[in-house]
Every structure is written in C-alpha cells, then in structure tokens.
C-alpha cells in the first residue's frame, strides 16, 4: 500500500488558492488559517502557504526539459492516477485551467511507460502534472 505524500507550495493569495484548488479542481479542504490551507489531492496532503512576495503574475522559477517533443516544466509535482480518474480529472481541468502547459495527451505511445499526461500552472505559477497508466503496477517504472 502506498502511503500519502505531503507537499507544501507557496501561493500568492490564499483565497485565490482556495478558489482554484477547492472550488475549481474539487480538492476538499482540511485544516486552514489565513496563512495556509491543507487540501486533499487524491488522498495526499497538499498544502498551500501564503507568500505574498510572489506577485500578481506568479514568479515560480522553472526550466523546461524536452520529453516526447514537449517542454516539461521543472520543478513540477502532481499525482499518478488510474486512467478513468485521469480522464475525469482532465475534463475538470479543462473547465478550470485557462491555458495548459501541455494539453492532455498520450505520451510515449506504443512504448514502455506509455502514459496519459497533462500539465498546467496554478495562478501562482506552480507547475502541476497529472498522469495515468493503463496498468500502474507494470508501467510506472517500466524501462
């Protein structure tokens, strides 16, 4: 059994994070204050912490590494989902995200590690990836 991860990221505005992650993406809220919010991201503890110095456009520094012909932002984080969960989440994200870094698609088609993936940034500039495999146990670490 996998254990839940915990990740904390900086956001420029707590109410904006609540709207984006909670109301928009549907992650339920746990404990919170005016400085941070715990969200349930597919069973994992995802925490947003206020950092007002990020500014209005978001300024999380990143680089892009080419993977399967796309510029993948680094750093990024996210969750590996079952394919049906990913398909449903991709539809939710399409309704919430104004611009994808990488639109939902199948990466490494016909190769070991074939996966569904999508990338977007939150309003503070944090890059997220959500991916899925047809068989997680066999494909997650395929070489």
TrEMBL record:
Domain VOC: 3-133
InterPro entries, A to Z: Glyas_Bleomycin-R_OHBP_Dase, Glyas_Fos-R_dOase_dom, VOC_core
Gene3D superfamilies: 2,3-Dihydroxybiphenyl 1,2-Dioxygenase, domain 1
Protein name: Glyoxalase
């Amino acid at each position: 059994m996998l254990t839940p991860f915990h990740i904390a990221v900086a956001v420029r505005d707590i109410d904006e994070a609540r709207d984006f992650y909670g109301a928009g993406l549907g992650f339920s809220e746990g404990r919170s204050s005016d400085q941070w919010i715990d969200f349930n991201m597919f069973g994992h503890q995802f925490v947003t912490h206020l950092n007002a110095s990020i500014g209005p456009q978001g300024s999380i520094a990143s680089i892009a590494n080419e993977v399967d012909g796309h510029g993948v932002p680094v750093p990024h984080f996210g969750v590996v989902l079952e394919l049906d969960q990913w398909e449903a989440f991709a539809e939710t994200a399409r309704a919430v995200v104004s611009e994808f870094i990488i639109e939902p698609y199948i990466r490494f088609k016909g190769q070991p590690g074939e996966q569904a993936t999508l990338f977007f940034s939150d309003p503070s500039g944090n890059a997220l990836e959500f991916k899925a495999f047809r068989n997680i146990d066999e494909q997650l670490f395929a070489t």
